[in-house]
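note to self: dont lose this again. the chain is below, predicted strucutre after it. 157 aa total, dont forget to put it in the shared folder this time
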Amino acid sequence: MAITKDEICKSYPLPVYNYKVEIDGQTVGFSEVSGLSIHYETAKYAESPSAGGPPGPRWMHMPGQESTATVTLKKGLVPTVSVATFFTWINSIQTNRVNKKDIFVRLCDEEGKAVVSWKVINAFPTKLDGPAFSASSNDVAIESMEVMADRVRIEVA
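---
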């Protein structure tokens, strides 16, 4: 049975390498993005035993508040982009005027059209790691930034 291109596009998983990241409306190239998770804390309640039921309390677990998200962004160090994107942003914390931004991570199809997007809401940087240096390596210098956000939302195109 032959499968059409449209059927493949609808039923096969998308490759993980075809994505783009937008910070404050500007597309920035990243080599890795991780931590796009939605997580809820749980609350544990003790319910009094009912008449004729088993002795002792019955424990119930209920969803609580949504946890904050910690997202890690890694990219090759390019002086003009790195200073404008990461260094200036994390330096704003030192003056106690942090600039919170929305970050979009968009998984794209083979034509570059966004299919699924993760919106990282009200993110601000909490950690900036410079590259690891080694005289015996010719790898690209990779910098890493961790941002904390209020929440992550998933949007399907």
